[in-house]
Design goal:
This protein is of the alpha+beta class. It contains 4 helices and 9 strands. It comes from Streptomyces venetus.
């Protein structure tokens, strides 16, 4: 069995990882891993310390704390069991969640078919044909990146979705790796695209004996 692993996840600026449970297993002695509230306060204060020269206005640290707390509680529910990372290059921006997980391969499913399905490369519900591009990873090899615009069923607004996928095979092990992002603001994703590409290239799979948690590398 292998685990997904983001290299140097703790220091992967401008990304912040949301734990999947509280307290986080293996980090019971780490204060910010105890509760969503402690986690949100820790990263809000830390991010504003990085931008101290901009002199945060009264209440801005509390505001960011509340925003991060909301994402800590709500974001994991969008794709249960996926790891969640927030792209947050500046404390006055709105976080952009990225969801990462392994997807079980169905028996006999070909790589190309699986990756196109996972990335919605041939989706008929989009407002224009998806933009499908090959995307190579130093750890996972050849994959796909798909950008698509679609109409949200609830709001009728046009949203933008971005997905990456690879097939991982080693010995008897095989799984597909999937990254999912979506936002109603196309500009938000397009501005973050270089950072997301860089993040995607850090995703790797490591044997159990090398990785205990996402934070250990």
């Amino acid at each position: 069995m292998s685990w997904l692993n983001v290299k140097h996840a703790m220091d992967l600026s401008p990304w912040i990882r949301i734990p999947l449970m509280w307290p986080e297993p293996g980090l019971e002695d780490v204060e910010e891993a105890q509760t969503p509230e402690a986690w949100a306060r820790y990263f809000a204060e830390g991010l504003w310390e990085d931008f101290a020269s901009e002199n945060p206005k009264p209440g801005e640290v509390d505001l960011l704390t509340n925003i991060l707390l909301m994402y800590a509680i709500r974001a994991p529910a969008a794709f249960p069991d996926f790891e969640v990372f927030l792209h947050l290059p500046h404390p006055r921006e709105i976080p952009l969640p990225a969801y990462v997980d392994l997807v079980e391969i169905e028996a006999g499913e070909e790589r190309k078919t699986a990756l196109r399905g996972l990335t919605h490369a041939d989706a008929s519900y989009t407002v224009e044909p998806p933009i499908v591009e090959d995307f190579d990873s130093p750890h996972l090899g050849a994959g796909l990146r798909v950008l698509r615009y679609y109409q949200d069923e609830d709001s009728n607004e046009v949203h933008v979705g971005l997905r990456y996928a690879w097939r991982y095979e080693k010995g008897t092990e095989a799984a597909d790796v999937l990254i999912i992002l979506a936002d109603p603001d196309a500009g938000r994703i397009l501005r973050a695209l270089d950072d997301v590409d860089e993040f995607a290239r850090t995703i790797r799979i490591s044997p159990d004996e090398e990785v205990d948690t996402w934070k250990s590398s």
